[in-house]
Amino acid sequence: MPKIKNSPRKAVRLEVATVKLPGNARKARAAARELQNRATALDAASEGIAITGPDGCYTYINPAHLSLFGYREAAEVLGQSWHIFYTQEEIEFIEKSVFPVLLEKKIWRGQVRGHRKDRSHFVQELSLSLLPDGGIACICSDASERIGAIKQSLRESEDNFRTFFETLDDMIFVGDQNGQILFSNRAASRKLEYSAEELRAMLLIDLHPAEHRPKAAEIVGAMLRKERETCPLPLQTKSGIRLLVETRVWPGKWDGKDCLFGLCKDITEEQEARQRFELLFHNSPAIMVLSTLPERRFVDVNTEFLSALGYSKAEVLGKTALELGIFPDPGAMDRTSAKLESDGRLHNMELQVRRADGTLLEVLCSAEVVVMRGQRHLLSVWMDVTALKQTTRLLQESEGRFRSMADSAPVLLWESGTDGLCHYFNQPWLDFTGRTLEQELGNGWTEGVHPDDLETCMRTYRLALKAHREFKMEYRLRRADGEYRWLQDHGVPRVAPDGSFFGFIGSCLDITEINHAKQDREELLTRLLKIADRVPGVLYQHRMRPDGTSCFPFTSDAIKDIYRVTPQEVREDASKVFANVHPDDRGGVVESIQQSARDLTPWQHGYRVRFADGTVRLLYGNSVPQREEDGSVLWHGFITDITEQKQKDEELKQLVDRLSLATRAGQVGIWDWDVVNDRLVWDDRMYRLYGITPDRFTAAYEAWQAGLHPDDRERGDAEIQMALRGEKDFNTDFRVVWPDGSTHHIRAMALVQRNVDGKPFHMVGTNWDITEFKRAEAAALQNLARAEELTRLKSRFVSMASHELRTPLANIMVACEILKNFGNAMPPERSQSVLSGLMTGASSMARTLDDLLLAGKIEEGKLPCTPVRFALLDFLKRCCQEVQPDLKSPSRIDIAFRNAGLRVMADERLLHHILKNLLENALKYSPDDTRIELGVEAGLDSLTLSVLDRGIGVPEAERQFLFDAFSRASNVGDRPGSGLGLFIAQKCAQAHGGRMRYAPQPDGSGFSVTIPLDDDFTPTI
């Protein structure tokens, strides 16, 4: 131990002495400078530094050390004993506990209480080093703030643990050493029906039913002695219900005192899960086996095992695979055992298994050790891949053909391996880039990617490579002529028959022009949503911010009917919308939205809303997400109320169920066939099912075959023979033809009886008429197809409305903004021009909406035709004026008809739609300096109107789609149009019983419509 004395000592100054030594003057001066530099560094240090001599008195002390202890001058401390900085208690601690360690290890670090000049105390972080001369070097700092922060952190940590306990769904209890409950979380109160105050008045042992408490006390003691891990005894709720739980108890500290912690896990769901496992096991389409370990004796097999291998359950239970000869390879059992021993499980091991009839199956075996009722078992799952093996061989043969086909494909193709490096590019790729295959291989292709796109491109590719998942991305690639073109790259994982990943195959399309059009469409859709008040259902934008909050920046007024909130109420906060979602559906809605945000996939979801008055409605939402620059996700879509539609679907389902029930409840025919003697016996109902009498039946197998529909005889015979061979049960349906030529559907089932040798000798079966069921099934499918068509129409409606309503609305908004800001200062002629623009935009929107509403009526079959008599020439002139109201020059339309007195019998409103659409198209797609010819041929029983123009015409390949809804030719450019005009015109003509024709002209197009004029004509709907 260092000998520390209290005797005073003179102050020692750190000085540099000049020592004159022959030949060493320069080295001496350097050493002096080094000594002076060190002294300066010590004085400038932020930590306290001091040095004592062997007698314990300070020989050096820096300013930081003086300040820490409340001194100003070094003279007050130098020569003084180190005792001046500590109380007697601390001095004794240092001399008895610190100095022995310092003497042994030459260094000591720790904390002590320092004593300042003003007699205040503080916690001192102290580091001592023993010097060669017996002195001590001391480095110290004030640790009070750090210790205070640690204490605060501990308090916050305890609060966090309390909060964590409250969030757990398991029941948490804290009790004192006598078992008195000190704390319980919310889950305990919720599940046991006691309040927290009631639980604090109870003992932990009181939570068990009375008859289990002695045993529970015994088990708790064993857990505290670490002789047991869990207690399986149930808990009892306040109302007397018993909960199946698994309880764990361990000792600990709570508020600084010894305590007992208890965790009770509700295992009711685990019991239910065990039942679900049983259902999954026996109904799985895969072959499943449960066997004991280590004996490997079968304790259970599922239905698919019995069906696939041809055994009965009695034949396999208690046996091993070796005893049954299931594995033809004697080493198969050894390999599976070795794999289980090394890995603990099997995954897709290829094996051969032998069926009961000796045939072999190729299977992929996966197995895992499971514990059931305290005993280890082996759960094995076999997937029959016999057919897959054959398919794999065929695929390998086709690989060579693929390479030759790829070079003639019209798209850019590439392949990569498991390392992500590309090893193949087809000839179109090389032609596009103008580079050789060697230049593109590996990562060479990235040299052509635009520098601004390269990082994103490679990140997307690497993430897909890591996850072995399909990807799509867009980037710019340099073409051979130096121009960068936008490509859409679609990569698909290549997977081997065993499920292993072995690279990607990808295709690239040049979408430069498509991208330009896409940007225009996105802008169009954004503006479209602002005029959505006329659209059925609610159109909306839903934004989910990065912090998880959400809002509806835009909704149409229909949200008042759908959610009973106003657009203003949800513009910044979407909580009022989600509050109206039915509680049972809210979790699913939130999860589906989050999934859509994660994957940026369209959101499509059906759910219920429930309002304060108890009203419940069923909604369906469909929207498309997009990622914004700030990380938010913005959806554009619509929500419709499908309550009535769902009710109709349910009524239809009930109808099908009733028909099915009626069919089952019908009379059933029974038949008995002596297979050996070919003797077939029918009951009376069988004769009625086949439409014959007993005297017309020869009671033989061929007589039954003769009654089958010719197209079903071969299949019916094949299924009978398969049942006789034991390959499958006889459970089928077929058609029979009665002597009167009518066809009836029969459902048939039968059991095969076999002798001791396994040969079939008897079949007993049933037949019943399912003709009505078949008819009902066909009707249901037809109604389902109609519902799907209506859904597709809604989607096409939103797309078209987005395209057609955006531009006029934008013009209206600009005109309104001009009038609002500059209306008072504008000259009258300018105001009139702006107002004219407003009216033109409003008229365009009105025409588009009229077309949409009329198209909707057509799709719903609600287009009435009501003929009336009217003057034809006046009608033609009025139509011509309507389609060119802004023309100040003479009309561009020549009417080749002058009979002012002719009156015709037709629906004037529908004929107006036809003629107006034809004239508007002719004017829109023809040069302004050309004329339009309107021809009329009026006969006694029909009227033909024709319109000829000098316009752009229709490409030959697209003429077959002219009259389809939403169809527009590829050469229309940016001319506005909904694609509904000719569709509506054709439907209006058909409502008259007429038809439309298109006749291409050398320098334009010709359309004509012919309708009957018979007074007795009955219009169609």
How are the SSEs placed, and which strands pair?
Blueprint: H1 25-44, E1 48-52, E2 58-61, H2 63-68, H3 88-105, E3 107-115, E4 121-130, E5 136-142, H4 144-167, E6 171-175, E7 181-184, H5 186-192, H6 196-200, H7 213-224, E8 235-236, E9 242-243, E10 245-254, E11 257-266, H8 268-283, E12 287-292, E13 298-301, H9 303-309, H10 313-316, H11 321-324, H12 332-343, E14 345-354, E15 360-372, E16 375-384, H13 386-406, E17 412-416, E18 422-425, H14 427-433, H15 437-440, H16 451-467, E19 471-478, E20 484-495, E21 501-510, H17 512-528, E22 538-544, E23 550-555, H18 559-562, H19 575-579, H20 583-599, E24 603-610, E25 616-627, E26 633-641, H21 643-665, E27 669-674, E28 679-682, H22 684-690, H23 701-706, H24 710-725, E29 730-737, E30 743-754, E31 760-769, H25 771-822, H26 828-859, E32 868-871, H27 872-883, E33 893-896, E34 903-906, H28 908-924, E35 932-938, E36 942-948, H29 981-991, E37 995-1001, E38 1004-1012
Parallel strand pairs: 33-35
Antiparallel strand pairs: 1-2, 1-5, 3-4, 4-5, 6-7, 6-11, 8-9, 10-11, 12-13, 12-16, 14-15, 15-16, 17-18, 17-21, 19-20, 20-21, 22-23, 22-26, 24-25, 25-26, 27-28, 27-31, 29-30, 30-31, 32-34, 35-36, 36-38, 37-38
Helix pairs in contact: 17-25, 21-25, 25-26, 26-29, 27-28, 28-29
